[in-house]
Amino acid sequence: MKNIICDIDGVLLHDNKLIPGSDTFIHRVLEQGNPLVILTNYPVQTGKDLQNRLGAAGINVPESCFYTSAMATADFLKHQQGNKAYVIGEGALTHELYNAGFTITDINPDFVIVGETRSFNWDMIHKASGFIANGARFIATNPDTHGPAYSPACGALCSPIERITGKKPFYVGKPSSWIIRSALNHIKGHSENTVIIGDNMRTDILAGFQAGLETILVTSGVSQMGDIDKEPFRPNHVFKCAGDIDVV
């Protein structure tokens, strides 16, 4: 019985619309009893939010199955020294950090943590850069530069801070293998018995490859057949969509 880590956007949904067949696939996996993690780099929504989002599209999954880069960031920071953080992000990220015992502050923080937020502004760049220049550690939820319709994402928000300080953040989300290990710990799973399903060679498949997972690429999202040869690594399996997957 394999553990399954499955991406959301491009695999299960396009924006908030169901990709045909993905509901059947997920419901079959749950009926079979495979341990399931639905994993996203997007740190803005809680597990409950994501459960509602998928439920509205016809995919019914327990809240406990969802794992986000905000959860993985909190998990990462629990293993580091320091418990004060200056946070650029939305409520779901601060919620996870509070749960992990962090104080959210703009007074002498140990960490600057960047996620996604629409309220990003000059003052945030100024404060974050000052703290990092004075020794705060720079952590970001994910390296994605943009989301649907070129909406700015975490990697883009980190760019001005990187330029000012000359320091790059540690990115927790895919393609970092950290988020994969964190998700596996969450379900007490092991890499040799886990498959990851994703639509992006450079995030999902690379993260799985680096973490030693079996990988499944679906071509219903970002990466198409012609993109596979552009990378030096290969997915173990390729399917048109999640509904076609027959190896788990």
Automatic annotation (TrEMBL):
The keyword Hydrolase applies. InterPro entries: HAD-like_sf, HAD-SF_hydro_IIA, HAD_sf. The keyword Transcription does not apply. Keywords: Hydrolase. One of its GO terms (molecular function) is hydrolase activity. This is HAD-IIA family hydrolase. It comes from Shewanella electrodiphila.
